[in-house]
Amino acid sequence: MNHLQQEEHLGARKKDRFSSAGFILAAIGSSVGLGNMWKFPYITGENGGAAFFLLFIVCLLVIGLPVLLAELAIGRSGRGSASTSFVKAGGGRIWGRLGWLQVISPFMILSFYVIVTGWTLHYAVLAFSGQLFNNNDFEGQFGGFIGGYSPILWQLAAVAITGWIVIRGVSKGIERFNKIVIPGLIILLIVLLIRAVTLPGAGEGVSFFLQPDFSKLTPESALVALGHAFFSLSLGMGILITYGAYVDKRQSLGTATVAIGAGDLIYALIAGLIIFPTTFSFGIDPAQGPSLVFIALPAAFSAMPFGTVFGGLFFVLLAIAALTSAVSLLEVPVSFAMDRWGWSRSRSVIIISLLCFVLGVPSALSLGLVPELSSMGGKAFFDWMDFIASNILLPIGGLLTTIFAGYYWKKASEAAGLRAGWFRVWLFMLRYIAPILVVLVLLHTTGIIQFK
Questions:
Q1: Domains in the chain, ordered, with CATH?
Q2: DSSP secondary structure letter of residue 149
Q3: How far apart are CA 363 and CA 370, in angstroms?
Q4: 167 in helix, strand or coil?
Q5: Is the pLDDT of residue 259 over 70?
């Protein structure tokens, strides 16, 4: 990027900023993706219900919030992309190169995330039209769908919607989108929550979720909770560094961190109060894995009064949650392209969206249509992309953040804006607690350490 392009880009950043409320909504939107509505219920079901939820809260406080604040502070101090903010905040060139990991990982995640986003869009249409419930073979429906070419069309639709939002900019695109859909998301959550807890037999599901059984917790549970706290807050993937660059200097990052963490936690709580009463009411195993959403829950909606409506609302909820995260993921490499190569926002969005779509096609085809992509070293191409990005790059990215903010960054106190007492606590967590836990998560997710 030449000097003139850099000045123009910096000027554009100064003009295109989040408002205080818009920033918090956008950051919450990045965290309330499919993870808490899709992944959280089944890992909670596998690990003892309420006991695991309490463990998740502890992990959120111990590792989630300190790293979240560090990423926001680095972004606001550096006023750049997920890579250049490390350098502009006071790091050397090596930190900029290491920061590439927090650009590559969201791009990889987005390539397969938009596939699942496309599934939610497809299922919302199927549910509202009633076609989803014409055949009770929900497993066959789902398998037939992901094993064909249709997911690629829905993937393209998801990429197009995401790109259309991001191309409009930070305030007119990302912020405006979240200001519209997050209140809608809240309304849908409340409607589905009321429906779920009033189902016959729902009380058993509520009890399972809210009454802890600590005997079911294992060291494995602790590492799973740590990993999910990390993933659900969008840590280690450059989103919060990128969003931090668009935050006004007057915004309290400590307050924003608490608000984002609270939003993520409340969403997880409500998700559990929707999923568990529904599954228990209809005799569905809540620990059966990802198929819970696309196979088991449609069966429950089909047996429910006005199931077509509530099923449609549920998948609209999923689609909104998926799109808010997809928008955040796309903004990271877009911001990097604008910073690194001086591209316009429009050019960045179009090129990166197309590359993301192309990279995602093998993932979509690996779920049944192309056998050669379905079993590559024991995993489908889709699963390899997920494994590399989520289990390797994200923990490494988070570890870099803790090391930079905890040990290297001389202006960490000023950037974080914390009072002396809270700053000492934050620095202690970043230096001595978070790195150890992140390394444990990395070792666990890569299979180096396992517990039986």
A1: 3-445 (1.20.1740)
A2: S
A3: 10
A4: helix
A5: yes
442 contacts 396 by C-beta, under 8 angstroms:
yes
> Can you list the pairs that 314-317 forms with residues at least 24 positions away whose Cβ atoms lie under 8 Å?
314/127, 314/192, 314/274, 315/120, 315/123, 315/124, 315/126, 315/127, 316/124, 316/188, 317/37, 317/185, 317/188, 317/189, 317/192
Torsion of CA 330, 289, 438, 219, to 10 degrees: 170
Two tokens at 244? 């931090």
Residue 33 — very low, low, confident or very high, per pLDDT cuts 50/70/90? confident
Instruction: For 191-208, give one letter per residue: b (16+ CB within 10 A) or e.
Output: bbbebbbebeebeebbeb
In whole angstroms, give the CA distance from residue 428 to residue 431. 5
Residue 77 CA to residue 69 CA, distance in Å, equals: 12
Q: Which residues of 315-340 are buried (b: 16+ CB within 10 A; e: fewer)?
A: bbbbbbbbbbbbbbbbbbbbbbbbbb
Binning pLDDT at 50, 70 and 90, where does residue 31 land? confident
Those residues whose C-beta lies under 8 Å from the C-beta of residue 163, and which sit 6 or more positions away, are 330, 349, 350, 353
Q: What is the mean pLDDT of the chain?
A: 89
Distance CA 217, CA 431 (A): 27
Instruction: List the structure tokens of 356.
Output: 């993301």
Give the H or E element holding residue 385: helix 381-386
| 365: enclosing H helix or E strand | helix 345-365
Q: Are 396 and 101 in contact (CB under 8 A)?
A: yes
Residue type for position 32: V
Q: Enter the pTM of the model.
A: 0.93
Task: State which amino acid sits at residue 28.
Answer: I
Going 112 to 113 to 118 to 124, the CA torsion angle's sign is positive
Torsion angles phi and psi, residue 376, rounded to 5: -115, 95
Between CA 227 and CA 444 the distance in angstroms is 9
Burial of residue 378 (number of CB atoms within 10 Å: 0-12, 13-18, 19+): exposed
Q: Minimal CA–CA distance to 265: which of 273, 320, 204?
A: 273
Gap between the Cα atoms of 177 and 28, Å rounded: 13
Give the residue carrying structure tokens 């989103």.
239
Nearest to 285 by CA among 274, 267, 297: 297
Q: Which bin fits 212, alpha (ψ -120 to 50), beta or left (φ > 0)?
A: beta
Residue type, 327: V
Predicted confidence (pLDDT) per residue in 173-190, tens digit: 999 999 999 999 999 999
Q: How does pLDDT run across 48-100, given as a tens digit for each residue?
A: 888 899 999 999 998 999 999 999 999 999 999 999 999 999 888 899 999 99
